[in-house]
Structures are given as C-alpha cells and as structure tokens.
Design brief:
alpha+beta, two-stranded antiparallel sheet, 8 helices
Length: about 250
C-alpha cells in the first residue's frame, strides 16, 4: 500500500496495489487498473507510483495483519476490515491525509476533523446512513455542487434521522428541496441552504416533509376579459365624448 493523491478529492490516501494490473495515462495524472476491473485515478505519474510501490514492498516484509486506510477501486469487491470483520457495500475504514474519511458512492470523502469519535465510528460502517448521505450527494452534484467534506453537524443530523427511522421522510425532503417549484424550496436553493442539517434536522424534518407532500395548486382559469375602465372625456357642455360611455 502506498500513499497517493486521489484526483477526485485532491486528498492523500493509501492505495492497495497488490492486485494492480497496469497503469494508464490520465489527463490529470494516472489511472491505476486492477485485475478485477477496478480503477483508481491519482495525480502521481506512473514512474512515481512504481517507485513508491517498490519502496513500500521492500519495507513491509516484517509487517503482518495490517488494517488501515485503503482506497477501494470502483466496481470492486467491498473492503473488509480486520478489526470488526465487516463487509458492506458502503464502508469507510481509514483516513485521508491523517484525517477521517467516509466512502460515499464509491468516493472517499473527508470528514470534519471535529467530528466526535463515537459519531464517526457509528457512521463509517452504517450502510443506511452512508446510502442516505450518498442519495443527498447525488442530488447536490446534479445541481452543480461538489461535496469536499462532510461536516460534523450534517453527519450528526443524518445519524439521528437513521436512528429514528425517518430515512424515507428525509429522502422525500431531499427530492423536494432540489426539484420543487415551491417557494420555500426555491428560496433554500437560491440561498444555498441545502445541507442536511438545514432541511432534515429534528426541528425542520416534519415541517419540510409536510411541504414535500403538498400537491401543486391547479392552474387558475384564464381571466375573463373585463370592460375598459378608461377615463371618459367631456365636451364644453359637460357631455361625455369618450371613454366607456362616449362615442
């Protein structure tokens, strides 16, 4: 395993090269291709990757049974940790650049370093939570956003959603938030107030869910043409000569 910089997040992470098949040039660096078809794109060049791999291989002969920060190639068998013997689709087992990381939609995303250890431990192997965060991230990115770090408050909010069994409610709110023409959803999008902690917190979830369930009002009928209300004109004798009552 060697420390490389992922193109997707610009963060350092350890990559397991034990099943590497070959490397291919990438316009931003190098793509590592594995025997099972998985790929990881990094900023380092092929020669540097080979050099680092040789250095690591020569220094690890006395190291056994390591469970550490491993970047999972896309479309590969999920990572299994040796600490808890857990194997799930969305699982985060390590750190990026010495910090915390979650694997969301097969992408390693850094986590706010102020996150409490107990919250991170609960989140990193909680597939419903990771899937819910991935659902929000997908909608967010379709709107042009880019998640570069998961905040502690967002993680705490989603943790409570999962613990209280309100996942479907939260997903309905996320759908409404990013696609509805409701004035409240439009306001939140325009103000950039789209983070989970803003819209599905314990104080906002029920209210926003109720809004998400409202059916749009039917279109108003075409207005009936009304008579002109032009101000009439008068002649020298006071007779109406224009407007609604004059010729």
């Amino acid at each position: 395993m060697i420390l490389l910089t992922l193109i997707s997040s610009k963060q350092k992470t350890l990559v397991n090269l034990s099943t590497m098949l070959y490397t291919a040039p990438n316009r931003l660096g190098t793509e590592i291709v594995f025997k099972d078809g998985g790929r990881v794109a990094v900023t380092e060049g092929a020669e540097e990757i080979l050099r680092l791999h040789q250095v690591w291989h020569g220094s690890c002969t006395n190291i056994t049974n390591i469970s550490t920060n491993i970047a999972e190639p896309k479309n590969t068998t999920p990572i299994t940790t040796t600490t808890k013997n857990i194997s799930t689709k969305n699982i985060s087992v390590g750190a990026v650049g010495g910090g915390l990381v979650l694997l969301i939609n097969n992408m390693p995303i850094p986590v706010d370093p102020s996150t409490k250890p107990s919250l991170y431990q609960f989140s990193k192997t909680n597939e419903p939570l990771l899937n819910l965060l991935g659902y929000w991230m997908d909608l967010y990115e379709k709107q042009g956003g880019q998640l570069t770090m998961v905040s502690a408050v967002d993680l705490g909010t989603l943790s409570k959603v999962v613990r209280t069994g309100a996942i479907e409610k939260a997903m309905a709110v996320f759908d409404w938030l990013f696609s509805s023409d409701h004035y409240r959803a439009v306001y939140l999008r325009n103000k950039g107030m789209v983070n989970p902690a803003v819209v599905v917190s314990s104080k906002k979830l029920d209210a926003n869910y109720a809004l998400s369930q409202q059916k749009p009002l039917p279109a108003l009928p075409k207005s009936v043409q009304t008579r002109s209300t032009a101000i009439p004109s008068f002649d020298a004798e006071g007779n109406i000569i224009g407007g609604n009552h004059g010729q």
